[in-house]
């Protein structure tokens, strides 16, 4: 009965459907997150084999901003579909003990990796390039980092900017300029 009520409210008010459930670790789980051995070089190779971009979603139990993203932003069809179609997402726990292998070969816990990478806030998303040079860490190799919770437009623009490799195309249009242009285009009714 609760599920039917949720669907009715979602349809009537145009709200995104709740797509994430809480896992045993207290983190939100979605169908587009991958359960891997957390060897980042292997994850990157698998992402490349699928023609997708590797993204590391760093979250923590009880994070109100993670909840906001999972309840209000990620469930939007255009965003969840875009992530599912274009990104290979590996979730990491800011305070987790699961071992990961960083690109530089160091094996450490999720929480030690988060400290190593200088991550203080959740959610944080690290977007990785197609290739990571020897000796680089996830943080030093990342082409972009999205620290914190943002609205649907900003999130979709960041996903698109990274996926289209716009960071490498035009130094005159960094993400902020790209995002400002996209906002203006949406206001003008043009999305080309």
Could you explain the architecture of this structure?
This protein is of the alpha/beta class and 192 residues long. It has a single domain (14-150), classed as Glutaredoxin, CATH 3.40.30.10. Helices cover 43% and strands 18% of the residues. The chain contains 9 helices and 9 strands. The strands form 3 sheets. A 5-stranded mixed β-sheet has the order 3-5-4-8-9. A two-stranded antiparallel sheet has the order 1-2. A hairpin with a 5-residue loop joins β6 and β7. α4 runs parallel beside α7 and α7 crosses α9. The protein is globular, with a radius of gyration of 17 Å.
For this entry, give a set of tags.
192 residues; alpha/beta; 9 helices; disordered N terminus
Question: Brief overview, please?
Answer:
The chain has helices at about 1-15, 40-50, 65-75, 75-85, 110-115, 140, 150-165, 165-170, 175-190, and strands spanning about 20, 30, 35, 55-60, 85-95, 100, 105-110, 125, 145.
- For the largest sheet, list the strands in their spatial order: 3-5-4-8-9
Major beta sheet summary? 5 strands, mixed
In CATH terms, what is the fold-level topology? Glutaredoxin
- Give the distance, in angstroms, between the N- and C-terminal Cα atoms: 42 Å
CATH architecture: 3-Layer(aba) Sandwich
Structural class: alpha/beta
Which ranges are low-confidence, i.e. pLDDT below 50, for 5 or more consecutive residues? 1-13
Question: What is the CATH superfamily label?
Answer: Glutaredoxin
DSSP strand count: 9
Organism: Litoreibacter janthinus
Signal peptide: 1-19
Pfam families: Thioredoxin_2
Domain Thioredoxin-like fold: 48-131
């Amino acid at each position: 009965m609760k599920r039917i009520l949720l669907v009715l409210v979602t349809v009537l008010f145009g709200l995104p459907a709740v797509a994430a459930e809480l896992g045993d670790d207290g983190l939100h789980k979605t169908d587009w997150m991958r359960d891997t051995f957390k060897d980042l070089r292997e994850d990157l190779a698998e992402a490349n084999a699928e023609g997708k971009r590797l993204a590391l979603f760093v979250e923590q139990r009880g994070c109100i901003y993670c909840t906001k993203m999972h309840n209000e932003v990620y469930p939007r069809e255009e965003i969840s579909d875009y992530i599912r179609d274009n990104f290979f997402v590996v979730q990491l726990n800011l305070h987790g003990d699961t071992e990961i292998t960083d690109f530089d070969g160091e094996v450490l816990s999720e929480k030690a990796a988060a400290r190593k990478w200088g991550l203080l806030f959740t959610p944080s998303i690290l977007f990785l390039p197609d290739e990571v040079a020897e000796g680089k860490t996830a943080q030093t190799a990342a082409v972009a980092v999205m620290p914190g919770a943002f609205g649907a437009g900003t999130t979709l623009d960041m996903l698109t900017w990274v996926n289209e490799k716009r960071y490498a195309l035009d130094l005159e249009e960094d993400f902020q300029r790209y995002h400002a242009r996209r906002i203006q285009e949406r206001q003008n009714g043009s999305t080309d």
